[in-house]
# Entry
Amino acid sequence: MEESQKILKLAVSIGEELLKNGGEIYRVQETIGRVLEAYGMEEYNVFVVSNGIFATVHEDRPDRGSMVRYVPLGKVHLGKVTALNQLSREICAGKYTLEEACEELARCRQMPGVRNLGKLLASGMGCGAFCYLFGGRVREALIAFGLGMLLWMFMQALARGRVSKFLVSILGSVLVTAVSFGLSALGLDIMRDKVVIGAIMLLVPGVPLTTAIRELFSGDYLSGIIHLADALITAACIAVGVGAAVKVFQVFGGMSL
Amino acid sequence: MMGQLLAAMLGTLAFGIVFDVPRREYLFCAINGGLGWLAYLLLGKCGADMALASLGSALILTLTARILSAVRRCPATVFLITGIFTLVPGAGIYYTAYYALMGDLALFTVKGLETFKVAGGITLGIVFGFALPQSWFARLGRAIHDRTAGEKE
# Structure
């Protein structure tokens, strides 16, 4: 492989990893450009959208290279984004040779996340805290805590079975609503709406919404629309799930809602 | 009020863990979430409606995230994404769906429009927050880092 192609591969791989883990489009684009420049590439073109990277270097020279990567929308891992950001700063400061930078990238890729038990507890804590924040009492918050952990386990199980994430949103909100309404139907004195609102925070599309806004208003219309569609469809799926469960309780539960 | 603030910080911290924020930034994520919610509560007390309060607090969240980003040398996204969860209209989605299914069209319309207005408020807050030039924040970051470097010597 030509030297320029190795450099291109490193730069695009860093960009891919950033994009996959929740980096913004402009950050990915800038990072790829800076890494290419740091290793002496003078002439390059980089085009990044939410789920793909296209890049070429040295179009008019014999050592030309081009690369396309498909990057599906994935799980957010902000620790990796921070580490890769640091890596690109250090590359620009001339700290690494090409081989060392590749090793550093491999290290960033393998960076472990929080362990499952931690994520489980954090999911419960998030749901409980938001339930309280949105007007629940302590007892609703405690139920939302349990329900958040249940929802997280449910989502993990579905993800392992490669269920589409939209179905996960629908089924997840059905689960949350059914449990909350069920407990209330059994005679528990709770505000079931507050429990549901707390527990669906795990499904609510906060990340794609924020990303979409920033992309649309920095002129990355295509990426912004991809993320906005993601956010709106996810929100619609939650609404469908909640609605389906409520309807079932209304029709078969004989409840006065 | 204290309980509310604590809940906002805990919730933000929890989402920080879910999204694998680096451990050394946990505290700062929680502070940003707490500040955002404090702004939301105070604006509400002054009589702002949900959309306006969301706008104001999203603006505060974004600016704080950018300041923290300069101070902590860490992408602003880390603080913004975790903090914004306090404002995302999850409750709006729930009530909109609920009233749609219950056939209460009046409340469905009210809640649906309110959800979109809140989303619009968050949008404007974030956009205004990022409208300030990056060079200001970079200068702030440099000023702070130069001073701490000086103290170490």
